[in-house]
Amino acid sequence: MTDAYRTVGGRAEARFEVQGSEFIGYISPAETVEEAEAFVEEINERHPDATHNVPAYRVPAGGASSSVPGGGNVMLREYQSDDGEPTGSSGKPALNVLVQQEVRNVVAVVTRYYGGTNLGVGGLARAYSRAVKEALGEAGIVEEIPHERFTATVDYDDSGSVRGIIESSGVEFDADYDQRVSFSVRVPVDEADGLRDRLRSATSGRVELE
């Protein structure tokens, strides 16, 4: 089986205060750099008046797990920014939590509202680490296996049998009924080739896979 990996069970947040400064840790699953950046932007838009919005993420480089299958051998893009805090006081401690917890396909943003007291580099590092740890605790860590996505497109005559095969396989999918019928499928990497073969056989090769 393709190696499983650790990631978060969903979105979560955690809040606390340190000497008057409010810290809010946000965490979310993300399968691509684009998804991670979109989450960072979402938090920036939610807190445009925050003193700092510090991001950190670990996601597959160059694509989702779908296009870079594998567990421990997948190339990860690790990114962090101090967003105006003293160098090394915030982004790196936030990212270090994700590394130490061995979670990937995950993005964190820690929002800070300054409370009037300087915390020092050590105090900031502890606060930003705590925000990510507590958000991780709220989200829960789960074991996941790499998935890939593909689209199966057929004429209406074949759509019933194709939908039946996809439903019987128990995978996630969306169907789009237009001039032809397209099924967008999310399937474990280890099962993808077998499912594609079944769809080809059922349609005598008429299915278009991409």
Automatic annotation (TrEMBL):
Belongs to the IMPACT family. Residues 153-206 form the UPF0029 domain. InterPro entries: EFG_III/V, Impact, Impact_N, Impact_N_sf, Ribosomal_Su5_D2-typ_SF, UPF0029_Impact_C. Residues 20-136 form the Impact N-terminal domain. It comes from Haloferax larsenii. Signal peptide: none annotated. Transmembrane segments: none annotated. This is IMPACT family protein.
